[in-house]
Amino acid sequence: MRRRAGTRGYHYAVMLADIDGFKALNHSLGSTTGDQLLIEIGLRLQSSLREGDVVARPLNFAGELLLARFGGDEFAFLLERCADENDVLRVAERAQAAVAAPLLVQRKLVQCTIGIGSAFSSNSHTRPDDTLRDAETALRRGQALGAGRTELFDAAMHNRAVHRLKLENDLRTALNRNQLRVLYQPIFRIDPRQAVAFEALLRWQHPEQGLIAPNEFLAAEDTGLMAMIDQWVIREACGQMPVWQAANGGRLVRAAINLSARHFASAQVIDGIKTCLRDTFAVPNALALEIADPIASMNPDHTAAALAQMRRLGVTTALDDFGSNSISLTSLRRCSYDVLKIDRSLISSMQADRTSQDVVDVILTLARKLNCEVIAEGVEKPAQVESLRTMGCSLAQGYFFSPPLDASAALQLLRKLPTCAVAPFAR
User: Fold this and answer.
1) Does 175 lie in the same domain as 144?
2) What's this model's pTM, rounded to 2 decimal places?
3) Strand residue runs (E) in 107-152
4) CB–CB of 363/374 below 8 Å?
5) Which of 68, 112, 215, 331 is most buried, judged by most C-beta within 10 A?
6) 76: Cβ contacts below 8 Å, ≥ 6 apart
7) What angle do CA 254, 274, 227 make, to 5 degrees?
8) Are residues 386 and 290 in the same domain?
9) CA 406 to CA 213: how far, in whole Å?
10) Which CATH number characterizes residue 118's domain?
């Protein structure tokens, strides 16, 4: 393939297959069974090829071209004489079906799916590595969308990959050059009107584009930088808490911080929180960690275990965006959150949509049963405040009360309210 890459009139495709969730399978089955599983899947993939198809050659193999294993659980296919995408899709469909049938490995029945990414040769590519890179881009795109998917590389995917690479480089520069900022939006008790906490909100002070909100650079999740950025935000907010406490007559001031999906799923999340608390001398029960409802729903077992560790540290846990995603009551019970934050979409539609108001009322009733505090997000109108007060919601945040403030303005707010009972949420 290397000799013919870039040759006019020679067309081929590269497919990469990755076993979905193999790391978890390998951990639960054991490495010996995991290795046998890889062999069985490799044989099945080999049998799914068309006559004459091969699958890239391992670098240390000098004989006949065979299906090659790339990395821990990836396989690479070389499909020659590919006229169009239908040829690739037919091979991918056979490969998916071959792997999906249950496997008996060392007396254990295992069922797997694979993600597949594919790319066609191009006259603009002079090296096979270029096509392999495109296939990997397609594979990662498919994996981000779910298990068992087949994705074909296209120009839009290439543009996204280029944008993601530029974003990663820019964010690394932002971290190194202190371009990231944390703003703090107060959380208020409705009656009496008192600030009880600040939510830390990340912003990027871009040298050309000005202040950028996180939704403009959410692709950072794909770069793996978000765990590093989360740690930076936690450290910044924890560093503010002793300053706020001193300005508030020695009373604790809580900081609420959102955890990204990638960071929350990592094994280092708890150790990182411990380090921040130790280095900043912040009081653990003045730190609230917020996990978005969709993130918490991804892996209930991990969520329950991670939240239990956080509670042992003395940290408050909050389920953010509650109501934006379906989450089982069983999972909610297992995780025992301290705080539920009602999603802003329900609050914004509460006046015009009776159903939304009923849902908010149900959430408040549920929270009382679970002994949770409730915070209404995105409160912007007096009518929303009155409805929440009537339904018994005591905590809220949004532009009706205050926009996000920089650290200096947040400190000034505390000094203007010397009688403000800023303290950990009651349990």
Assistant:
1) no
2) 0.69
3) 108-110, 114-120, 150-152
4) yes
5) 112
6) 14, 15, 16, 17, 55, 56, 67, 68, 70, 132, 135
7) 90
8) yes
9) 14
10) 3.30.70.270
- Quick one: tokens of 337? 């959150």
Do 258 and 404 belong to one domain? yes
Q: Which helix (H) or strand (E) holds 68?
A: strand 68-70
Q: Is 368 within the bounds of a domain?
A: yes
Are 299 and 265 found together in one domain?
A: yes
In a domain, residue 218? The reply is yes
Residue 388, SS3 per DSSP:
helix
Q: Using an 8 Å Cβ cutoff, are 107 and 116 in contact? A: no
Angstrom distances, CA of residue 228 to CA of 43, 166, 233, 272, 353: 40, 17, 9, 10, 40
Domain holding 105, by residue range, is 12-153
Query: Are 17 and 50 within one domain?
Result: yes
In this structure, the answer to whether residues 85 and 175 fall within a common structural domain is: no
What DSSP character marks residue 81?
Answer: S
Q: Which two tokens stand for residue 227?
A: 């765990």
103 near 40, Cβ under 8 Å?
yes
Are both 132 and 240 inside the same structural domain?
Answer: no
Residuewise pLDDT in 10s, the chain (427 residues): 444 444 455 577 888 999 888 887 777 778 788 888 888 888 888 888 766 555 443 333 333 334 555 556 788 888 877 767 788 888 888 899 989 888 887 777 888 899 999 988 765 566 667 888 888 888 988 887 788 899 888 877 777 777 777 777 888 888 888 899 999 999 999 988 888 899 999 998 888 878 887 776 665 565 667 788 889 999 999 999 988 888 888 888 899 999 988 788 887 889 999 999 999 888 898 999 999 887 887 777 788 889 999 999 999 999 998 887 666 566 677 788 999 999 999 999 998 889 999 999 999 999 999 899 999 999 999 999 999 999 999 999 999 999 999 999 999 988 886 445 444 454 4
Last residue of a domain, one of 91, 123, 153: 153
Helices within 30-116 (DSSP H only): 31-47, 85-100
